[in-house]
Design brief:
The protein is of the alpha+beta class. It has one domain (2-66, 80-106). The protein has helices at 17-26, 42-64, 83-100, and strands at 2-7, 10-16, 35-37, 104-106.
């Protein structure tokens, strides 16, 4: 199922339910049928999501050092899309909503 996040400060952001649940979990929110991230919660939410992106990038960099594409005896594999790419539209929305001092809603 698709979840649509809305704010007057940015275009709507749609994502699959499992990604929405994951990103909301990072910022300490629960994915219910309806919800809100208030403008007062935005600074903490942005900080938590940015920290998670930094941690993910660090872990991916460590993994990339073990990437052996084309080497004999190693199966090629795709490097999955990282949190930075998955979270960017939502993080951008959080930042724009913070600048505009507005809330983010879903399920409305």
């Amino acid at each position: 199922m698709l979840i649509t996040f809305k704010t007057s400060a940015a275009p709507d952001v749609m994502m699959l339910e499992n990604l929405a649940e994951y990103l909301l979990g990072i910022i300490g929110k629960h994915l219910g049928p309806r919800g809100v991230i208030t403008h007062d919660e935005l600074p903490g939410a942005i900080e938590k999501l940015e920290a998670a992106v930094v941690t993910d990038k660090k872990e991916r960099a460590e993994h990339d050092g073990h990437f052996h594409e084309g080497e004999a005896g190693h199966e090629p594999h795709e490097i999955p899309i990282g949190l930075a790419q998955r979270a960017y539209p939502f993080l951008d929305m959080l930042r724009l909503a913070q600048k505009a001092n507005t809330d983010i809603l879903w399920g409305v």
